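Both lines are quoted verbatim for reference:

——
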Amino acid sequence: MGKRKFLRNITPLLLSHHPDCSKFENHVFHVGKIKICAGCSIVYPAILFSMIVIYITNLYLIMPFEFLLFIGILFSIPRIAIIP
């Protein structure tokens, strides 16, 4: 499989990873022909914002990487816990 074909097939999964069925229809919203996961549309910008804040405030120099990783995992537990 060529790189372009692979990217064309995988790109929809990056924005909306839910199956195409009525059970998950309320988990996505549509922008034209593109389906976008409602949860990921919040998480991706939050990750980017957090990375920028950590870089600008030099938190990566003050706090060890392991601590920042632990905090990230800790904040993701409520989301993981409610997955059906």
Notes: Residues 1-38 form one domain. The radius of gyration is 17 Å. The chain has two domains: 1-38, 43-84. Helices lie at 3-15, 40-56, 59-62, 65-81.
